[in-house]
Structures are given as C-alpha cells and as structure tokens.
Design goal:
The chain has one domain. Strands 1-8-3-6-5 form a 5-stranded antiparallel sheet, with no helix packed on it. It is built from no helices and 15 strands. The radius of gyration is 16 Å and the shape is globular. It starts with a strand and ends in an 18-residue tail after the last strand. β12 and β13 form a beta hairpin.
Length: about 240
C-alpha cells in the first residue's frame, strides 16, 4: 500500500513560540506530521520542541522528531523541524476536531511561528521513515535538492524550509519538479521573518525547495509505504559541531 498525502492545514502565529491551534484530523488519517518554522535566538543552541501534544502545554513531547535543522554554526538556533505521531502511538488522539499544543525550547526572537500540519495514510507503522537530509543556511545558494536514498515508488517524500523573509516564502513546488506545495507562508503580518514552505512528491529522492536566499535552511525526508523497506532515520541534523 502506497503512502498517501490526504490534506493539510497551516497557521501563522504572530510573535510567539508557544500556544495552541485547532485542527481537524481526517477520518482516514493514520499519521499526523507537524512542520514548525521559527527562529529562537542568535545565541541559543536548541533542540526539538519541548512540548508538542494534544493535551496541554506542560504535557511534554508526544510526537517523534523526524529531523530538525539549525540556522548555521554561527547562529545555532533551531529554525525548521518536522515531527510525527501515528495511530499506533498510545498518545494518538483519534480523528476529528483536536487542539494541538506547542512550545519550542528557548525564547522567541520576535519572528513568531509558522505551522503546517499534514495528514497521511498508508505509512509503515513499525519503521515509518526511510531517510532524511538537510541543509543549513549559508551553506549553498538557497536552492536545496535532497539526496534521499532507498526510496521506492510507493514512498512519500517531503521537503520544508525556513527563510528569513518578510515578503515571500521559498518555493516548495519549483517549475518542472512534479512536487505539490502544501504550505507557503511568508514572514509578514507582523511575524518578522520565519517564512515556511512545505511540499511533497511520491517516490522522489531529489526533492527540492528554492528561494535563492542565503537565509534558507531546509529539511527533507521520505515516509515508507506500508510493507516497504527502510533505512535508519537521522534526527537533529545540523546540530552541534
């Protein structure tokens, strides 16, 4: 059974890295993905969100981190990350209307938070992540192409990027790519910079996100189709060192 994208929702939170959002989990969803774009602070080395769950701000991290990317070595702040929870988890909230609570480590650097919540099905529950890849800011041209390995045609690849831009988000469906963009949130509206782009494509090892901006930091990963073959996932890419 191929892994399939169902739908998604986006939220733009002005000036805060903690709070809650109302979402609706489709009846056929077996996994919820959460993408967070936020810049915590120039001198703060951070890890994943300390609270991401469906019960309350002080109830901890019920999601599994897929991959997180810092800005760069000079400014090692978390800026783009992806998390998952699936229907086999004891913390799975069921389907329908839910409240998602989030609280990132550190103090918001006044850029606020952009959120994309995506719903998928047909993902292998025992070992859902095939492979991950990422690129920090100032590491290239601002046009990121992943090098995911072990991808089959039934797997589902995602790409996401943070960019310090108040007017336009990166492009998660570049011309000729075959990708579908599901989030394109700029840093405007008082947020101040944490633009977010998210896109997906089935069975793609070289999934792209383009901005042409040195301020872009990007992540990519592939979800394994039910019954497929996986390789070890990489979490917290781009942290340390």
């Amino acid at each position: 059974m191929a892994a399939e994208y169902i739908s998604s929702e986006t939220r733009q939170i002005v000036g805060a890295n903690t709070g809650s959002v109302s979402i609706t989990i489709p009846g056929d969803a077996t996994m919820v993905l959460v993408f967070l774009s936020q810049y915590i602070g120039n001198s703060v080395t951070t890890g994943p969100a300390e609270d991401l769950n469906f019960t309350g701000l002080t109830d901890g991290l019920d999601f599994s981190l897929i991959i997180a990317q810092r800005y760069d070595a000079s400014y090692p702040s978390l800026c783009i990350s992806a998390y998952r929870i699936d229907s086999s988890s004891p913390d799975w909230p069921g389907t329908g209307a839910k409240t998602l609570y989030y609280d990132a480590v550190g103090t918001s650097y006044s850029e606020g938070t952009n959120i994309c919540v995506a719903y998928v099905k047909g993902v292998d529950s025992a070992s859902p992540v095939v492979h991950t890849d990422s690129e920090e800011a100032n590491a290239g041209t601002g046009n990121f192409t992943s090098s995911l390995t072990g991808i089959s045609s039934g797997d589902l690849s995602f790409v996401a990027a943070y960019d310090y831009d108040t007017s336009a988000p990166p492009d998660a469906a570049p011309t000729g790519s075959g990708q579908t963009a599901i989030a394109a949130l700029d840093g405007g509206g008082g947020i101040g910079g944490s633009a977010l782009a998210v896109g997906y494509e089935a069975g793609e090892s070289a999934i792209r996100v383009d901005s042409g901006s040195a301020y872009q930091a990007a992540i990519a990963f592939a979800l394994k189709e039910a019954g497929g073959t996986s390789f070890p996932e990489i979490a917290l890419a781009g942290f340390g060192g």
